[in-house]
Amino acid sequence: MTKGSRRWLWALAFLALALLVLKSLVFGIYRVDTPSMEPTIHGGERVLVFYDRTPPARFDLVVVLRKGDDTPVVKRVAGLPGERVQIVDGDLLVEGARLGPDVPRPRAIPVFDERWQDGEKGFPIPEAARGSWTRTRGEWALRAPAGGQLEFYGDVKDSYFDAEHVLVPGEVPVNDLALELELCQDDPGARARLRLSEAGDVFELLLERAQDGRLKASLLRRGEDAAAAPELLTTRTIERGAGGWHRLRFSNIDNALAFERDGERLLVATYAENRFAREDRLQVGHNLLPRASFGGENGTLLFRNLRLERDLYYTPRGGFATQRGEDLGLDRYFLLGDNSSFSRDGREWRETPAEEIIGRPTWIVWPLSHWRAIEGAVPPPQLLR
Questions:
Q1: Is the pLDDT of residue 22 over 70?
Q2: What is the per-residue DSSP string for 23-87?
Q3: Euclidean distance between CA atoms 272 and 121, whole angstroms
Q4: Domains of the chain, each with CATH number or no CATH
Q5: 132: Cβ–Cβ under 8 A, 6 or more apart, which residues?
Q6: What distance in Å separates the CA atoms of residue 199 and residue 276, rounded to the nearest whole number?
Q7: Whole-number Cα distances in Å, 156 to 122, 153, 292
Q8: Which of 5, 117, 241, 356 has the fewest CB atoms within 10 Å of its CB?
């Protein structure tokens, strides 16, 4: 063997040793076998984990090796040391209150997306409305002075898209939704309406195009009586009401409404609690109204690229933080899985000591076609003043 060959062998041996040390002390690669974190992490994917014992923030993802278990699991941090946490109607409450609209939270989960689904099956055009509504080349057009609304077909459950963009049907109805779409509203006097319902409430984003080109945006709260006057929650006039297509997002998350236009947050309004639907005779909070709709009146309105999303929804299984608040001790965390119906987590095993958190998952690394970064909490756009 030549001197040069020996140098190469020593270099390769040193590199292998360095990688072994790094893998033992700095990072590891783990296979996630269960669906408990879908769609954030799909079952069968492998994640790159950095061994990091610094205190996590709310909604960070962590890898936990519980005492007595042989296999680490990935969960999301919901409660922090010293807090009181509780799950109520699928929402996370901290110190008895829902998180505010300016708090970073996990990205919403699509349950309908025109990129991968037939839009007219999600928002069918009624036979009586085909004189007003048309759909051509993926664009919806509403051309009728009297206007109208297209409603989402069916209830919204804890569904999600798998890694191949196939919808995995859920079983549990959810409450908090967001409707995203692109809108072209150039006719003076035209009014566009986006609606989301929860229990007995209908929340509406009303956009009115003035003759001078300005755009008035309002958030309204309606009841089941369509003839009753709505409650105005907040309003503002957008001076730079440029024409053409704009991306809109209207959300109702944790009892807070928000309107975003082209990535800018323009309106926020909060409310106390939802009213019960008339047919919800046991008053358990069933969603019996059309969950989402879009439309308007007084001019031509064009819509495209619809997407309906849901917030994380936590089911009341288990005995901790579901029937009453759970007080967390020092260096104790409350962990939950994103796919709540299929997750064993803090609802069953209570709080998690900090010493059982061994690292942070950062990337999906296998299969290569699924390669992506793993997100924790995403800050919302700041409210434009």
A1: no
A2: HHHTEEEEE--SSTTTTTS-TT-EEEEE---SPPPTT-EEEE--TT-SS-EEEEEEE-TT-EEEE
A3: 34
A4: 27-99+315-373 (2.10.109.10), 109-310 (2.60.120.560)
A5: 142, 143, 144, 146, 147, 148
A6: 5
A7: 11, 9, 9
A8: 5
- CA 6 distance to own-chain centroid: 56
Query: What is the value of pTM for the model shown?
Result: 0.91
Q: Quick one: tokens of 4?
A: 């040069």
Mean pLDDT of 268-281: 89
315-335 pLDDT per residue, tens: 999 999 999 999 999 999 999
Residue type, 240: R
Tell me the C-alpha to C-alpha distance, in Å, between residue 22 and each of 27, 51, 72, 104, 121: 6, 10, 19, 32, 51
Tokens of 246: 């704009």
* Cross-strand partners of 205: 194, 219
User: What is the C-alpha to C-alpha distance for residues 63 and 61, in angstroms, rounded to an integer?
Assistant: 7
